[in-house]
Structures are given as structure tokens and as C-alpha cells.
Amino acid sequence: MLQWIHRSPQHWHGFINHEVCVTNRDQQRFEGRVFTVDPVSASVVLVSVQENECPSVRVILGHAVTDVQILRRGTEETERQMKSVFLPDRAQDLSAEELKSRRESVRLWLEKNRVPVTEDGELLCVANALTISAPYRPGDCSSASEIILSRIQSLVEKLPSPEENIPGHQAQLSRSNITSVLQTQ
Fold it and tell me: Are residues 38 and 60 in the same domain?
């Protein structure tokens, strides 16, 4: 059986938003919801949210993790709670349609830059070495390879705005400019 630290980022991603019990080398157990797993160190970020209390965040270092068991699967409601703990309100306000559009824009941009990308549900997967989760910004990239991570993040940062990314948009602008010039004469 593979040790936790030697698992793939895709494997770790399967634990995000689920309530888990993490056991470390000293047989200590920690329970909470997985917010993320660091792709470089395999460290697990657990969040415990009790009613009427501030959320508690605990990081279990990847090299110390011996076992992770899912206690309860996450739901859309728990995902929303988890996001509200860390993400700014603006990021949470994106509709499903806006997220889909953003995912498609990022996918097309990566393909245009000759990066092999596939969709796996809500995730974008780059060459089986990196994943990009919603809302598909540079900070939403996750990879065990720092080189791949930095290069893809750099590409995502350079993503053109929607107007620049629409084929034929420049031609439409030119036609509208010509029309407005003709109307003023």
C-alpha cells in the first residue's frame, strides 16, 4: 500500500470537502473537513466548524500522515460553508453558468498555448500532472511539480479577458467603428 505522501494529487483531491479522520505516526487522530492538501508536502489542512464558534484550522504535515479515513461525505452545503471560511465573497458569487464559462475559457486558452488539458467533472486536468479547480484562477492550480505549477499559473494569469478571447471580436469592433463613422458624416 502506498504511503500518503507518495499518493498523487488526484488521489488527495478525492478527500477535499469530506469529513475525515487523519492518523499520524504517533497514532494521534484528528477529525475535520479537508479544505485542501498541499501538492508539494502532502500536508492536510483540516477545518472544524462548530456552531456559534470560529472555525478551527489544523495542518497535519504530510510526512507524518499514516492513514486518512472518510467519515462522512461532503455535500453542496458543506462545500459552501468551507468556501465561506476562506474565500472572499466575490469568489463565492459566481453562478454555475459563470463558472462553466470560466472553465471553458481557461481550457481553450491552455489548448491555444499547446497545453494538453482534459475535463474531469468540475476539474481541469493538465497532462495528469496538475488540476485546476473552480473558480479556475492561478491560485486554484494544484500540482506536485513546482515547475509545472508555476508555468500553468503564469499562463492562467495571462488569460485574456472574455472580449479578447472571442474569435472575430476585433472584426465586430471594426465594423461598428466604421458604421459609427459613416453615420456621423
Answer: yes
C-alpha cell at 159: 488569460
Render pLDDT for 61-87 as a digit per residue (tens, 0 to 9).
Answer: 999 999 999 999 998 888 877 777 776
**Model pTM above 0.70:** no
> Is residue 160 domain-resident?
yes
Domain count, the chain: 2
Both 135 and 107 in a single domain? yes
Residue 54 structural domain: 4-86
Do 101 and 78 fall into the same domain? no
